[in-house]
Write a structure and sequence with these properties.
alpha/beta; 2 domains; 16 helices; 11 strands
């Protein structure tokens, strides 16, 4: 089934917060701005599959701490309530935000002072929300982590779904008539902690939850829970990247880099969705090849390593070789337009860089220091939360200084001007990074033409070899015959 790919813009994220309370709309807009500044691109796949009416249970993987629910919250076309670990309520500000956005607490056994019996109240609240046609999002792994594959799926999502459709309610009835659908959502980040990285939200195939007969205690039978949990896990695996070890992930990422192409500039690939599809395809092929022909797998990895060593020695990246795919006029136009942009906006960029450098530095520093929250990996959550405080503080300090030395009118005007300068500085730095890669590639092409073409031929050869893995991976290792065993 073909997939639709959209790059979500800031105004679209802010627009999705309409219709809620003023407080919720303001917080929604702030989170949208913070995420859109942190991520250079946010891509959404198959969002039109999400029904606009009726109860839905979204199930998601959990690779990036608080960023995961925030990202889905501001991009989802439906009003959604999340289930989150109860320890987030320990902070007064966090408790206020969680209640504002109708986030329900989950009491996990791994959390200190956990009261798992309180989950019964949370489950009842979930049932009522779903019976009213609302949406709930849950991370069935139960923990945010850095592993390259899904962790064991907990049974909570299945129990909520089965309980909602099977449990009668005196006030609203059950969901036997209206039905409940489960929507798998896969989250992927090019880098979870790097500023101006990219994020992908991928909606999978939606399926219905059938009502069942509850046991004597009013609980779904274990067999039914296990079957639905397995179905949830399978659906989540189809929209996420799963590898056994970090070594396998590194090998697949290196192989995928050989197929990366230029789109708009050298940092962007054609679409992030195409990258993830290719990674999933390569992961499946690598797993079969390693099982059926491990020696060939080792040889291929050795070739890729030699190629990367040659690239590093030449001072360019794999994507840089794609410059040759463009006509000379395109390269020339690209460089000229960006040089003009840098010259025209250089005053604003310099001012913006100077003013925002302390906030940028300390946000990244705090993100590196506070990498975890309880037992969960925080990812970029700490950096984004820090920037939400430090950036406005920067604007306030600038306006206060101007008010002291001049007057309040200049101080007031300085706030949007300071924000504009920061944004121009951000875009200028990205343009400089792109131009540096392009210029190094063009310089190498003219100064060391033979080396450039040798690397290009070497890459094309590896592309063909990796592309043929589909055939190689189907090799069946012969089993020992009876005569050899005797």
């Amino acid at each position: 089934m073909p997939e639709s790919v959209k790059t979500i813009r800031l105004w679209q994220m802010v627009y999705l917060g309409k219709g809620a309370s003023i407080v919720r709309q303001v917080i929604h807009a702030i989170i949208s701005i913070a995420l859109r500044l942190f991520f250079r691109r946010i891509e959404v796949v198959n969002v039109e599959r999400v029904p606009q009416e009726g109860p839905l249970l979204f199930v998601l993987n959990h690779p990036n701490g608080l960023v995961d629910p925030a990202l889905v919250f501001v991009s989802m076309p439906r009003r959604v309530s999340f289930l989150a670990k109860s320890t987030l309520y320990d902070n007064p500000l966090g408790a206020f935000l969680l209640r504002t956005f109708e986030i329900l607490p989950v009491y996990r056994r791994i959390d200190p002072d956990a009261r798992s019996e309180s989950n019964a109240v949370t489950f009842d609240n979930c049932f009522e929300l779903l019976r009213r046609g609302r949406c709930i999002a849950i991370f069935p792994e139960g923990i945010s982590h850095d592993q390259p594959q899904l962790q064991k799926i907990k049974t909570g999502a299945a129990r909520i779904a089965l309980g909602a459709v099977s449990h009668p309610s005196e006030s609203t009835g059950s969901l036997r008539e209206t039905g409940l659908k489960i929507v798998p959502v896969g989250l992927y980040y090019t880098s979870k902690t790097s500023f101006r990285s990219e994020a992908l939200i991928r909606y999978g195939e939606i399926f219905d939850v059938e009502p069942i007969e509850l046991d004597a205690n009013g609980e779904p039978p274990r067999e039914a829970v296990a079957l639905l949990t397995a179905k949830i896990e399978t659906s989540l695996r189809s929209v996420t990247l799963n590898l056994e070890t970090e070594t396998e992930l590194d090998a697949v990422l290196k192989a995928e880099a050989l197929f990366s192409s230029v789109f708009e500039n050298l940092i962007f690939k054609q679409t992030l969705t195409q990258t993830v599809r290719r990674l999933q395809d390569l992961a499946a092929k690598y797993a079969l090849l390693e099982k059926n022909d491990p020696q060939k797998m080792l040889e291929l990895n050795a070739k890729i390593t030699r190629y990367e060593t040659d690239l590093k020695a030449s001072g360019i990246t794999s994507e840089s070789l794609s410059v040759l795919q463009h006509p000379t006029w395109y390269v020339f136009r690209y460089l000229v337009l960006r040089v003009i942009f840098l010259i025209v906006f250089s005053p604003l960029a310099i001012v913006g860089a100077i003013i925002h450098s302390p906030a940028y530095f300390f946000s990244n520093l705090l993100g590196r220091i506070f990498r975890t929250h309880d037992t969960d990996v925080a990812g970029s959550s700490s950096a984004i939360i820090a920037s939400l405080g430090l950036m406005p503080l920067t604007w306030l300090i600038v306006s206060s200084v101007l008010w002291y030395y001049f007057d309040w009118q200049i101080a007031l005007i300085s706030v949007p001007v300071t924000i504009l300068c920061g944004y121009v500085a951000l875009r200028s730095s990205e343009t400089l990074i792109d131009m540096r890669v392009w210029l190094k590639s063009v310089w190498l092409l003219f100064r060391q033409r033979a080396l450039f073409f040798r690397l290009l031929v070497q890459r094309q050869s590896l592309q063909k070899e990796i592309g043929s893995l589909s055939k190689a991976s189907q090799i069946i290792v012969p089993l020992p015959t009876a005569s050899r065993n005797s």
